[in-house]
Amino acid sequence: MRSYRLAIDVFVVIWVAAMLTLGWLAMLEFDRLAGTADSLSGVAREESGLASALMPLESLPLTGDRVAQAERNLRATSTSTAADAEVMRGSLREVGRIAFGIVALIALFPVVVFYLPMRMPTVRSRLPDARGRHLTT
After folding, report:
1. What is the mean pLDDT of residues 87-111?
2. Contact 103, 26 (CB under 8 A)
3. CA of 16: how far to CAs of 70, 108, 119, 135, in Å?
4. Using an 8 Å Cβ cutoff, are 79 and 24 in contact?
5. Could you give phi then psi for residue 135, rounded to 5 degrees?
């Protein structure tokens, strides 16, 4: 009976460790995925640089208005892309934290609901009562 309890104890420890590791790896993958937002930030910088390069062309006759409009559109797009990159980065990191939390809850739920109540009588039976006698369960 004691080896049976020990096997269950070892299984529970391995289960919790494996699930927490899985949650941690999922969180790291979401963080890595959030790093792709850096490439969007790079695109925003390039768009802004292109808009700056168009500014001298605004003085050209006949095309200056179109160049100015294109420059404004590029600046607006650059600002929007940079903002989207920040939102994406933050959202993906938050999803990673949520995924870790969900996996941790899934791992700990059976431990708290089934395993700990099953083990409590065993722990209680080893503790002495107020008079110094051991409890029997």
Report:
1. 92
2. yes
3. 57, 7, 16, 30
4. no
5. -75, 145
pLDDT of the residue at 126: 60
Tokens of 133: 């006698």
86 close to 42: Cβ distance less than 8 angstroms:
no
- Helices and strands (H and E) in the chain: how many: 4, 0
The full set of domain ranges for the chain reads 2-126
Give the pTM: 0.65
The pLDDT score that the predictor gives to residue 134 is 56
Question: What was the pLDDT predicted at 94?
Answer: 93
The C-alpha atoms of residue 26 and residue 129 are separated, in whole angstroms, by 46
What's the pLDDT at 38? 80
- Looking up tokens 């792709």, which residue turns up? 36
Q: Give the separation between CA 41 and CA 35, rounded to whole angstroms.
A: 10
Average pLDDT, the chain: 83
